[in-house]
């Protein structure tokens, strides 16, 4: 038989094994036969009878060890199928996202990461909860192993110190292997304590469990929390052994957090050596532009904000401003994410993978450094964050995130107008041109190439005009200047006659600025002499205005 090599597709999430109906929609440890049939159908047709039983673990009574004589068994955990908040994923959704982001997660023998799930329903068919299924790992919880040791014996003291150091080594490896391949940000366990570490004394192996809350956007104190609890359970000696081993092996991801544990056995230089590295990414002081955690997207459909709505809301609004997020398409590769019933929006602009992200980030940081007030200016929806898009372990582009005071584009406002659409454009577009000229003049700098906006947001009630969707002067647009690029983006609903109004408004401000600069150069702070001819010269004809626009 000839062997052919096949490429195994990357998993897209947990395996859905089926539905289990119970009396109240919760797991019943006394009724295991239907569950075992879903987990492994062959387990019930073996030649010998296996008596299965579920042993509860943990204080919350939501996790069990499903065991059978001579069988490996499973670890199961009951979770809610409903979100605690609209923009916070469920544990099941979080596990699906992590598997897409780290395809080798299920193959890691040091982790008991869930591989399957079973849907729990009431007899009427209502979906109430889910069961996460993980492999059964050998060993006992580390806190129980601590309590069983007689630390009056020297050999037990040395044994416990070796185990504590080994936990630090494994945690450093965990943070390094599951750091974001695009941003370098560590992915934390978020609930790392001795009860979630299993230890098998005979084989001297450790396994991390309870990983459904794993993620870089949660609590980032894995080291500090474990050290504090280890110091409480045993002694300072073993807590120091854990931290010192971790700090010796941790990769340069972030600056280490100071421990709240009071130490006498080791100095601060020992616990926090100058070469020690960090676990969280921090921005240089004085900068506001941020690079957020990467967003895993499926390889089949590509990026779709509607399919990642909850995760996006959590990434860009961790303060839970968006509890009911909505998304609206602004233009091709640009969307507006907003809270239902509010005017404010987050403008998402997708950047292709062939664009140098480091250069883009550098330019945004530099612009914010020169003009710190730009992020609070209602006239510009300037990017304040960047989200790397990740397909498997490869970079497939970025999202620029900006804040805007309104969630309606100029085109959408025009299409929603029922009457007098022609009059609306004739009155509105000159104001857009004037606002564009004033805004660009406000942010003119010799250190940077001029920005080129191609999107316009508009709030009719407050009469706010905001520019979005930026490109830099040397990027794309086939050499178009600022005005041409904006006009080109408005051609879908405005004809040349209307766009000429926009150009006239832009040129009017430009001409006024140039005349003001000329007067200041000639007369200083004194007012220039008035003449009867000034009025006629100041009101230029349309032909002169058009000529000025064409020469820009």
From TrEMBL:
Residues 519-552 are annotated as: Disordered. SUPFAM superfamilies: Protein kinase-like (PK-like) (SSF56112). It comes from the Eukaryota. It comes from Durusdinium trenchii. This is Aminoglycoside phosphotransferase domain-containing protein. InterPro entries: Kinase-like_dom_sf.
């Amino acid at each position: 038989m000839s062997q052919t090599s096949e490429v195994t597709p990357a998993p897209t999430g947990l395996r859905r094994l089926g539905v289990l109906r119970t009396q109240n929609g919760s797991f019943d440890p006394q009724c295991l036969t239907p569950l075992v049939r879903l987990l492994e159908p062959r387990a019930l047709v073996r030649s010998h009878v296996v008596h299965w039983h579920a042993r509860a673990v943990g204080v919350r009574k939501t996790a069990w060890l499903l065991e059978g004589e001579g069988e490996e068994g499973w670890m199961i955990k009951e979770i809610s199928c409903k979100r605690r908040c609209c923009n916070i994923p469920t544990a099941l959704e979080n596990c699906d996202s992590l598997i897409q982001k780290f395809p080798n997660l299920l193959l890691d023998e040091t982790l008991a990461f869930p591989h399957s799930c079973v849907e729990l329903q009431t007899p009427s068919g209502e979906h109430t909860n889910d069961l996460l299924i993980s492999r059964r790992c050998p060993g006992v919880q580390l806190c129980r192993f601590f309590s069983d040791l007689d630390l009056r014996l020297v050999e037990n003291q040395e044994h416990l110190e070796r185990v504590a150091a080994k936990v630090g080594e494994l945690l450093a490896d965990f943070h390094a292997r599951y750091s974001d391949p695009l941003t370098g940000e560590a992915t934390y366990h978020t609930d790392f304590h001795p009860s979630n570490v299993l230890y098998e004394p005979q084989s001297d192996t450790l396994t991390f469990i309870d990983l459904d809350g794993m993620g870089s956007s949660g609590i980032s104190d894995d080291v500090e929390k474990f050290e504090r609890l280890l110091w409480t359970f045993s002694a300072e000696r073993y807590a120091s052994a854990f931290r010192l081993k971790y700090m010796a092996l941790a990769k340069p991801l972030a600056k280490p957090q100071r421990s709240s544990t009071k130490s006498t056995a080791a100095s601060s230089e020992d616990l926090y050596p100058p070469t020690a590295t960090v676990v969280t990414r921090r921005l240089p002081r004085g900068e506001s532009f941020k690079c957020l955690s990467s967003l895993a997207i499926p390889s089949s459909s590509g990026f779709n904000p509607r399919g990642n709505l909850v995760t996006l809301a959590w990434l860009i609004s961790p303060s839970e401003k968006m509890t009911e997020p909505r998304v609206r398409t602004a233009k091709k590769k640009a969307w507006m994410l907003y809270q239902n019933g509010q005017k404010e929006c987050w403008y998402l602009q997708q950047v292709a993978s062939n664009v140098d992200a480091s250069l883009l980030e550098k330019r945004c940081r530099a612009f914010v450094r020169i003009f710190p007030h730009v992020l609070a200016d209602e006239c510009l929806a300037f990017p304040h964050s960047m989200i790397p898009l990740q397909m498997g372990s490869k970079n497939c582009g970025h999202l620029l995130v900006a804040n805007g005071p309104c969630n309606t584009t100029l085109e959408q406002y025009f299409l929603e107008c029922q009457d007098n659409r022609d009059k609306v454009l004739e009155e509105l577009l000159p104001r857009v041109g004037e606002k564009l000229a004033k805004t660009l003049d406000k942010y003119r700098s010799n250190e940077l190439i001029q920005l080129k906006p191609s999107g316009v947001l508009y709030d009719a009630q407050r009469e706010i005009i905001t520019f979005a969707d930026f490109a830099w002067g040397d990027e794309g647009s086939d050499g178009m200047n600022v005005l041409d690029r904006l006009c080109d983006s408005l051609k879908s609903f405005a004809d040349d006659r209307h766009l000429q109004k926009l150009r006239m408004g832009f040129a009017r401000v430009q001409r006024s600025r140039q005349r003001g600069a000329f007067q200041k150069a000639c007369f200083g702070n004194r007012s220039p002499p008035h003449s009867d001819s000034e009025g006629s010269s100041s009101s230029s004809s349309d032909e002169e205005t058009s000529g000025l626009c064409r020469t820009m």
